[in-house]
Amino acid sequence: MKTDIERRACELAAYIIETRATVRAAAKKFNISKSTVHKDLSERLEHVSRALYLQVKDILEFNKAERHIRGGIATRLKYKRQEARGSGSRSVASSGFNEDRDAD
């Protein structure tokens, strides 16, 4: 008989396999922390169901490999939204450029 934690790990695995969701999305859906999702999927699931573990592992590795792309897309969208609201121009002072230090 599976414990609640083992059952949760299997439910998380099924959700991620069906939706190809990220750890963050799964944590939000199940109302638990990202750390708990990660521990359930990377440690506990392997002992409960090796087949589910291997499927989830592939998805998590794929998500990790493309996270830098998602971050870039999110940043681009952020600045497009700011531009649309009219606050898109960043001043030199807020850009982090220091004329005295960075002019060399």
SSE ordering = HHHHH
Helicity range of the residues? over 70%
**What is the radius of gyration computed over CA atoms, rounded to a whole number of angstroms?**
20 Å
- Estimate the mean pLDDT confidence: 84
Separation, N- and C-terminal Cα atoms: 68 Å
Which structural class do you get from the secondary structure elements? Answer: mainly alpha
How would a crystallographer describe the biggest sheet? none
Specify the number of helices: 5
Q: Which stretches are poorly predicted, pLDDT < 50 over at least 5 residues?
A: none
Overall domain count = 1
Which overall shape is indicated by the principal axes computed on the Cα atoms?
Answer: elongated
Strand content: under 5%
Q: Care to count the β-strands?
A: 0
Could you characterize the architecture of this molecule?
The protein has helices at residues 4-19, 23-30, 34-48, 50-85, 99-102. The protein is mainly α and 104 residues long. It has one domain (4-85). Helix 1 (4-19) crosses helix 4 (50-85). It is elongated, with a radius of gyration of 20 Å.
